[in-house]
Specification:
This protein has 380 residues and is an alpha/beta fold. The chain is built from 8 helices and 27 strands. Helix 1 packs parallel to helix 7.
């Protein structure tokens, strides 16, 4: 079945993966009936902005907004997919509706992993979470953030910038698992200089004692604050696919074109795709976009569509620092300095590999992303 004979496509998920898939379907020649299902009532928005600009932009509430969609799809927002019938080619919704399809894109993303069932435990995953946190920060409460990854550090940075007293709880040095020791130490130094308190621990749990929620560390120490936030990873939203046989260990494995079967694609945070290290889930904004572009074309053109050639791209803004990195992180050891040098100023860095490839990173350094990507490839 070619693009010209596919009549109906349903995209389940209205995040950046679903939006990109819908746009790409149109770009690839699909002119049939296109429906997007989204469990949030909001149009698609920039999730990375929630922990960055949206927490800091004063009265400006537009930093998360994306340009109006041009795919012309029927958008069913505020409804949730509850099942997928592969034989009958139907997506069932929680309002009782059933959507027939010729092709379907699974893009339901993931949700925040939680440490407890306590209502006092806040997470930052969706737009409503970010707006609620903005409202709380106006009173400059004391804050404890559990989680030393990029999201936890970005949240801590935003809370500090709002004038809050902030403690961050981390298993080991913050960011070391994601970035490696060199870059992690640069960010931790900047965070400490701006007033962040960092507590390293082997584990942490949230509990309520005498009516108050608190964080308990592995040595029994207790941290209390007016606002408790956790940022300890995510959980793919695959429960609605439990009866399909498509999931493995909570993810949806796909081939090099993002397909589970010829008429079913899975993209974004729920998909595990082939990498040099095997099937991996890569829950990054850039990953969702690249996956969706490839899979949408494969749904229409099959093996004639090009496979995914994924190159990780990561960025973060926190504590006055902006990092862009291309290549597989974390990286051990000291980098080569292409421009700039150690000391906190703008720097362009590279970690070379024996085969001539490498990882490139720009710290507070303006550089076009295509040039940063070229730095990771062997010289011609």
């Amino acid at each position: 079945m070619s693009a010209g004979t596919v009549g109906r496509v349903v995209v389940v998920g209205n995040g950046i993966a679903g939006l990109t898939a819908a746009d790409t379907l149109r770009d690839a020649g699909f002119d049939g009936e296109l429906t997007i299902v989204g469990d949030e009532p909001h149009p698609a928005y920039s999730r990375p902005a929630l922990s960055k600009a949206l927490l800091l932009d004063g009265d400006d509430l537009s930093s998360h907004e994306l340009p109006p969609a041009g795919h012309g799809a029927t958008e069913l927002l505020g409804v949730r997919a509850t099942g997928l019938d592969l034989d009958r080619r139907l997506v069932t919704l929680d309002d009782g509706a059933a959507l027939p399809y010729d092709r379907v894109v699974l893009a339901t993303g993931s949700r925040a992993r939680r440490l407890s069932g306590l209502p006092e435990e806040l997470t930052l995953r969706g737009l409503d979470d970010a707006l609620a946190l903005r409202g709380l920060l106006a009173a400059r409460p004391s804050v404890v953030v559990v989680g030393g990854g990029p999201l936890g550090m970005e949240i801590a940075s935003g809370c500090l910038a709002a004038g809050c007293r902030v403690t961050l709880v981390s298993q080991g040095l913050p960011l070391i698992v994601q970035l490696g020791p060199h870059l992690a130490e640069v960010f931790v130094k900047a965070a400490l200089e701006r007033g962040l308190t960092i507590v390293e621990t082997g584990s942490a749990r949230l509990e309520r004692r005498a009516g108050e929620a608190r964080v308990v560390l592995d040595d029994g120490a207790v941290l209390e604050a007016e606002v408790l936030l956790s940022a300890v990873g995510d959980v793919p939203n695959t429960e609605w696919l439990a009866d399909t046989g498509l999931t493995v260990n909570g993810t949806v494995p796909v081939d090099s074109r993002g397909l589970v079967r010829p008429e079913v694609a899975a993209v974004g945070d729920l998909a595990a795709f082939p990498t040099p290290s095997g099937l991996r889930r890569v829950p990054l904004w850039s990953s969702a976009i690249e996956q969706a572009k490839v899979a949408a074309r494969a749904l229409l053109h099959g093996d004639q569509a090009p496979p995914l050639e994924f190159q990780p791209y990561f960025w973060t803004e926190q504590f006055g620092l902006a990092l862009k990195a291309v290549g597989h992180l974390p990286q051990a050891g000291e980098p080569e300095y292409v421009d700039g040098g150690p000391g906190g100023g703008p720097a362009l860095m590279r970690w070379p590999h024996a085969d001539g490839t490498g990882v490139a990173a720009a710290l507070n350094y303006r550089i076009p992303i295509p040039r940063l990507r070229r730095m990771t490839r062997p010289a011609a």
